[in-house]
Amino acid sequence: MHNLNTFFRQTAGWIAAILIAALICNTVCFAFYNPCQDIPRAQGSTTGYLLPESGGVYGLEGYCIAHVDENGYVNRDMERADEYYVVAGASHTEGLFIPFKYRFSDRLNEILYDDDKLHFVNIGKSGNYFSVVLQHFDGILGEFPDAKGIIIETDSLAYDTKALYDSMIQTGYDPDETASSILSHYSAKQKAVIRTKQALPLVRELHKQYFTYLDSQKTPSESDILDPAFWQSEYEGDFEEALDTLMGYLRSRTDKRIIILFHPAVRLEADGSMTCLSNNAEEYYKRVCQNHNIDFIDMTSTFTEAYEKNHIIPYGFSNTTPGDGHINRAAHEMIAEKIAEVLR
Fold it and tell me: Which residues contact 4 (CB under 8 A, 6 or more apart)?
């Protein structure tokens, strides 16, 4: 009997210790990692919104206290200007790793305008890579009909012929599918899930790490593998034809200004140099975009010069590995200055 009581006391102590440790870790997460809530949608300019009028904390790379506007996008509380551009892309554009005023969309606003109005509407959404943004192109045009132009950010040009053609398959646009409308139709269970996620950031972090691990175990598809030889292969003609068809399609949908921004990933070499990774596709994009009156901005030379002259690495933060992860504040500044040159 004595041994049984001892066992129960020890078990209770262990459980209490685990719960206290979990509580402490969860509390720390509120100041370290408590991301904004996703609100998925079927159509429109992105794959989803963030919970309107909410916030989040991102400290895994850099540090940012984020704010979501009333429309479900990551913009500062500023009146939208009559003359504005839409900035679309994935997590680099969303910029939830540095203070908002230092993201390239915010820096563009300050570099080119001084009227305290929002001239660059950031609709960046994690996971909305180049091909995904293009599939939502009609949605962008429908949701932002008065936009002067569209800036599309990408860190990769490694898309095969099929991916380029698939990018023309549009998701459509439903003007009634706003963030507030979606939330108004949520069930009590769905609303409870949102509240639970907000209260338990530790669970969300563990969930993120688990699926990150699963992704790391997957075998990359041929489309995911950077293969410079592909661009010099017998499929070269097919690729350029597909790219030309895609850019022609984009131009046929609107006469607005279209800017494609490419910022390559980098690798730090053993000899201290930095290499901008490439599939040798840049010249194809440059030529085809020019033929369709689309601006193509390639940050390769700018990144290379910044590193060679001032040892500036465009990726990584003080709390991550230099050269890896997301673009940092210095890269956002270089990108803003480059886009500003094109728009002036």
Answer: none
CA neighbor of 66 nearest in space, from 87, 75, 109: 75
| Residue 87 burial (CB count, 10 A) | 29
Q: Are residues 94 and 226 in the same domain?
A: yes
Residue type, 153: E
Type and span of the H or E element at 245? helix 236-253
Q: How many domains does the chain have?
A: 2
Q: Does residue 6 sit in the same domain as residue 41?
A: no
205 with 330, same domain: the answer is yes
Which pairs count as long-range contacts for 226-235, CB under 8 Å and 24+ apart, including other chains? Answer: 226/158, 226/277, 226/279, 227/279, 228/278, 228/279, 228/280, 230/160, 230/279, 231/279, 231/280, 231/281, 231/284, 232/280, 235/161
> How far apart (Å, rounded) are the C-alpha atoms in residues 334 and 308?
15
Please give the average per-residue pLDDT across 237-255, as a whole number.
Answer: 91
Q: Tell me the chain's radius of gyration from C-alpha atoms.
A: 23
**Residue 111 CB contacts under 8 Å (≥ 6 apart), including other chains:** 336, 337, 340
What is the 3-state secondary structure of 51-106? CCCCEEEECCCCCEEEECCCCCCCCCCCCEEEEEEEEECCHHHHCCCCCHHHCHHH
Q: State how far the alpha carbon of 181 is from the alpha carbons of 5, 15, 69, 74, 176, in Å.
A: 56, 43, 15, 18, 7
Query: Which one-letter amino acid corresponds to residue 284?
Result: Y
Q: DSSP label at 230?
A: G
The pLDDT confidence band at residue 233, using thresholds 50, 70 and 90, is very low
pLDDT at position 235 over 50: no
62 and 177 co-located in one domain: yes
Say what the pLDDT of residue 102 is: 96
- Is the whole-model pTM more than 0.85? yes
18 lies in the same domain as 103: no
| DSSP 8-state symbol, 259 | E
Statement to judge: residues 5 and 135 lie in one domain? no
Output DSSP code: residue 218.
Answer: S
| Residue numbers of the domain that contains 241 | 35-343
